[in-house]
Amino acid sequence: MNSDVIDFASLAPAYPEMLLALGAIVLLVIGVVINKERSVLVSYGAVLLLLVTAALILFAPAEGVLFNGVFIGDSFARFMKVLVLGGSAFSLLLALPRAEEHGTHKYEYAILVVLATLGMLAMVSANDLMSLYVGLELQSLALYVLAAIKRDDGKATEAGLKYFVLGALSSGILLYGASLIYGFTGHTNLQEIVLAIASEGRSIGLIFGVVFLLAGVAFKISAVPFHMWTPDVYEGAPTPVTAFFATAPKVAAMALMVRLVMDTFQGIAHDWQQIIIFLSIASMVLGAFAAIGQKSIKRLIAYSSIGHVGFALVGLSSGTQVGVEGVAIYMAIYVAMTVGLFACILSLRTEAGYVENISDLAGAAQARPFVAAIMAIVMFSLIGMPPLAGFFAKWHAFLAAIDAQLYVLAVIGVLASAVSAFYYLRIVKIMYFDEPVARFDAVPGELNIIMGVAGFLLVTYYFTVGSPLASFAHTAAGSLF
């Protein structure tokens, strides 16, 4: 057989990435040829592309190491990729109603989301420090543009600039850590680094490299103290863009964090565990207390997301397979809660525009009872009240910490949840008990469907998707051990 002939069957683990890359090119051609006025066609095409890619991962699974060891396909990557693709697809659907008002009506918007998602899939399957960085930068460059997609809006432009400057700083920190790791192990391939640590042991230079590398990844998941960009970018960016930032990129960065610490640096677990525990505690505490005084609903969501990253890191702190399962389940439920929350926010529009402040939600239960009911369900789920899905998310994370005898961490997590209940319940109180201050416009049909699906899944989680999700997460976590 001719060695120059490419064996496409051997590339099966990379089919999702190849499909997304080809799809992005086709959508770009469609957008350019048909004109930006028909951008809705590109948007629906992008949603279909993302869903088909997710179906390919689910129903035609393929595993293996490709491209001289820089790309890996395993059960963990499959789980996280499906979450990333789902988060991206729903974020695009959220942007469709009144797209021109958000600045997301341009055909470039959907293509940038697809390209960012391609970078996220590359991150999740990265098996080398170089492929890790390429995937991270492909995601980041698209996100910088998305933050400032509404070019005539000063706040959006400022958000994009802040994100770009701080993102470039975090990329530099991550790259410096990667160079230190390469310098002290002699390898960029993650599996070869594992062998180097096993044979040569830990060194001060390697520990410094790991610290810088994890700091760069912590920026992407908004973990404290690398969270400073989150409130400003969430508030300044158009709301559908904020919804995208709060879902898919967080999942991809968390997947990268898990793969690095549980696989590559498992030999120095004692060292990275201290870092993860610190990130977890700091994120939970700051997320709980900083959100209390917020008046802007998007800034409140930003601090809430920081807190939830801390809860997910509780599971990772254990350093066990149960902990990785907890992280996987937590991120899946977090995506569902976030999509439902942003669907509710985008449904509440007055003559003056979309709700910006928490006080603007006053009387929503009287004018839009369905939206208020779904939002209340999401709020109770974010608190972690049983039997909603959020309770089971925190249950899995705290259970992993208790199994690893990290009792103080679990107690801090429970206390942070109790504090956060204040500002979640305040939103419910304002919607149901305060007098209306404005008339709300009619809710677009697409948002009603998304809210209904999210609310149904959060309420019936234990009886519907709970068992299949736990089984999928168990298989995913097992591939790292």
UniProtKB/TrEMBL annotation:
One of its GO terms (cellular component) is endomembrane system. One of its GO terms (molecular function) is quinone binding. It is found in: Cell membrane; Endomembrane system; Membrane. It is a multi-pass membrane protein. Residues 126-419 form the NADH:quinone oxidoreductase/Mrp antiporter transmembrane domain. It catalyses: a quinone + NADH + 5 H(+)(in) = a quinol + NAD(+) + 4 H(+)(out). Coiled coil: none annotated. It comes from the Bacteria. Its EC number is 7.1.1.-. Keywords: Cell membrane, Membrane, NAD, Oxidoreductase, Quinone, Translocase, Transmembrane, Transmembrane helix, Transport, Ubiquinone. Its main location: membrane. The chain crosses the membrane at residues 12-34, 41-59, 79-97, 109-126, 132-149, 161-184, 204-229, 241-262, 274-293, 300-321, 327-348, 369-392, 404-425, 446-464. Belongs to the complex I subunit 2 family. This is NADH-quinone oxidoreductase subunit N. The lineage of its organism: Bacteria, Pseudomonadati, Pseudomonadota, Alphaproteobacteria, Hyphomicrobiales.
